[in-house]
Amino acid sequence: MASRTEMTGLGIQYLENGIRVLTVIGAADEALSIGDIADRCGMSKSLLHRYLTSLHRTGFIRRDEDLRYSVGPAAMTLGLNAVRRFDIGGAARNGLLRLRERLNETVALSIWTGNGPHYLQWVESQRAVNVGIRVGVQVSALKSAGGKVFLAFLDEEETRYVAERECREFGVSLTEFQQEMNRIRRQGYATTVESLLPGIVSAAAPVFGRGGTVMAAVTVVGILGQLNVDKDSPVVEELKRTCSEISQSFGYNPAAQA
């Protein structure tokens, strides 16, 4: 007798072919030309072009100026949502709790889903006054410390749409934006002061996975004048230490990226 989880019966061959094309593109270490994809899929370029057109229209792949294809925001969203359910949240939970205990400040974990940062976990401090936010809510990339981390450390193509949209919305010039992103990369963390809420300051650092891909951002949130987010402060040191610990649990090897 077949298992209840076993899928039997006829499928849709065209759909399976499209998924095969997407899988080939997603497995590549770099963007692929239509010739590369055709060779790896064993498919004619004329037929392949139809699949590429549909996958591009739906956001599952993207095409650069050199007519090379890579994974698009829709596929990234699906992947990140899967990681959110099965990996990131559980693995990072203990790190968040340790950071909260070390600092007695509210800490949060966010992920990037193609349209901006989303909060996945939120652990409140034990102070009398706390900053709260709903898990799953999307916030501004430019106005949140975690969002700035993604803008600085993710591939530029992955964040370009959101970055350009918010720069226009908030009147930030491209020069100003690039200067801040470069500063965040040098420092290894990002900060915000009263950008989302009056009287609130925050600092965030990236969590890397195997191969150096940014998987999440950890944010410390506190009261302006009480939370010191200077680069040599204990808060920033603990934040970076925690992100390093979580990153290593995901298989990140800093020495291999040097």
Strands, helices and their partners?
Blueprint (H helix, E strand, L loop, with lengths): L12 H15 L6 H8 L3 H13 L3 E3 L5 E3 L1 H31 L2 E7 L4 E7 L21 H9 L2 H15 L3 H14 L2 E4 L6 E9 L5 E10 L10 H16 L4 H4 L1
Describe this structure in words.
This protein is α+β, with helices and mostly antiparallel strands and 258 residues long. It has 9 helices and 7 strands, in the order αααββαββαααβββαα. A 5-stranded antiparallel beta sheet has the order 4-3-7-6-5. A two-stranded antiparallel sheet has the order 1-2. Helix 1 crosses helix 3 (45-57), helix 4 (73-103) crosses helix 8 and helix 5 (145-153) crosses helix 6. It is elongated and about 65 Å long. The model is unreliable at 1-5 (pLDDT under 50).
Task: Give a short overview.
Helix content is 48%, strand content 17%.
From the structure above, extract its key features.
258 residues; alpha+beta; 5-stranded antiparallel beta sheet; two-stranded antiparallel sheet; 9 helices; elongated; disordered N terminus
Q: Note the gap between the termini.
A: 53 Å
Task: Give the overall pLDDT as a whole number.
Answer: 85
Structural class: alpha+beta
What is the radius of gyration computed over CA atoms, rounded to a whole number of angstroms? 21 Å
Query: What is the tally of beta strands?
Result: 7
Main sheet?
A: 5 strands, antiparallel
Quaternary organisation of the protein chains: single chain
Overall, the morphology is elongated
Query: How much of the polypeptide forms β-strand, as a percent range?
Result: 15-25%
Low-confidence stretches: 1-5
Total helix count?
Answer: 9
* Major β-sheet strand ordering: 4-3-7-6-5
* SSE succession: HHHEEHEEHHHEEEHH
Helix content: 40-55%
